[in-house]
User: What shape does this take?
Amino acid sequence: MVRHWTATIAHVQLMIGIVLYSQSPIIKYYWNNFTEGSKDLSTFFFGVIHMVLMLVAIAMITIGSAVAKRKQTDKDKFKTILLWFSLAVSIIFIAIPWPFSPLANRPFFR
Assistant: This one.
């Protein structure tokens, strides 16, 4: 159940993220002013890096879920889930614009 619901929630979050990505004024600026936007690290982070890292993380959750489903024992299933999901969460934490991030920092509260 954990494997299934984690993958399902991740895919729902992906769909919500794609909708928000397409409506973001930062993203619209980045794609309308591609050369200028690529020079600014913060704009480039939101235009490309954030999206790519989140897609990779969701792909890792999906792959880990599929691989774990095919394992025979519960111990092997949980080891596989731990490995793939931990890597995905690590990538997600890297892709978040933390206040201390060198790529793009945003305050916790505005």
The longest helix spans residues 41-69. The CA atoms of residues 34 and 44 lie 9 Å apart. The two ends are 37 Å apart (CA to CA).
